[in-house]
Design a protein that fits this description.
By secondary structure, the chain is an alpha+beta fold. The longest helix has 74 residues.
Length: 290
């Protein structure tokens, strides 16, 4: 499921900002980007994410900065490097015969003269807890948005399950009539082959019974009903239902495929095709669930 969360936490002059984004994925795939000052805490951050999420492509980025009023302690000036820039610039001016002198603004723009330190040793002890706090809050926001989307997907799956149940009921209702139609077609074929000769009624009944046994879908319908009941139970329970529902959809598809293969009646075939369409829609939605 998709989601977004952003949070900021601070402590001991340190501020950590975390942004987390998720998109659909069958498994949990974490892309974690941490600045150098937070790199040592990557294992803990991954464990925290894994404890909160089970599926999805997750992009997490963190930034660390000084808290308001502490920025001066994070800016470092390299005076020797600045002096070298000035000396080289003046030397180049003399060699080229170009008048003028360097300004402070020009010196400050040179690479490396001013640099921002990510943290000092005193700050590092607090970074782990601040990162955990910011990451936890960002994940709270992300999970809340995913939960809202999940509820909508669950409702849609419930409707699709009802549609599939209606097709199963239709197959159950049409199955007896399909047997009668098969028997009548068999009689017509035998009459056409024998012409005006008498028909062995016992032989016809044997053939009808064998045909009915090969095309009997009662076991498949029973299992379909059981799977639909389990589908409703899982959706009602909530939580991380993506993987259980994937299995159920596979089993539903298997049973309907068997019914479609056995069906030699037009009305049964049409109902089986409609059931397969509902299951395919369910498969697409299940892949988006946690």
């Amino acid at each position: 499921m998709t989601g977004f969360g952003r949070a900021e936490a601070g402590g001991d002059g340190i501020s950590v900002t975390v942004e987390a984004r998720s998109v659909n994925h069958r498994h949990l795939d974490i892309a974690l980007r941490l600045p150098r000052a937070l790199a040592a805490f990557e294992p803990e951050a991954r464990r925290l994410i894994q404890s909160r999420l089970e599926r999805g492509r997750l992009d997490v980025a963190a930034q660390v900065a000084p808290a308001p009023g502490r920025a001066a302690h994070w800016i470092r000036a390299d005076a020797p490097l600045a002096a070298e820039y000035v000396a080289r610039a003046r030397e180049l001016g003399r060699d080229l015969g170009v008048p003028g002198d360097v300004t402070l603004a020009w010196v400050l723009e040179r690479p490396g003269v001013l640099r921002a330190e990510e943290a000092d040793a005193a700050d590092e002890a607090a970074l782990g807890s601040v990162l955990a706090q910011a990451l936890g809050q960002a994940l709270d926001a992300l999970v809340a948005r995913r939960r809202t989307e999940g509820e909508a997907l669950g409702a849609e799956l419930g409707k699709l399950g009802a549609d599939l149940g209606a097709q199963v009921a239709l197959i159950e209702a049409r199955a007896p009539a399909a047997v009668a139609r098969r028997e009548e077609r068999l009689r017509e074929r035998i009459r056409a082959l024998l012409g005006g000769a008498s028909v062995d009624e016992g032989r016809i009944l044997v053939e009808v019974a064998a045909w009915a046994d090969k095309t009997d879908v009662r076991e498949e319908l029973t299992r379909l009903r059981a799977h639909l009941g389990e589908l409703a139970r899982v959706l009602e329970a909530g939580g991380a239902v993506g993987r259980p529902l994937e299995f159920l959809v596979q089993e539903l598809h298997r049973e309907v495929n068997t019914i479609a293969a056995k069906a030699d009646d037009l009305e049964l075939s049409q109902a089986a095709l409609a059931a397969k369409g509902a299951i395919e829609k369910m498969r697409e939605q299940v892949q988006n669930l946690e």
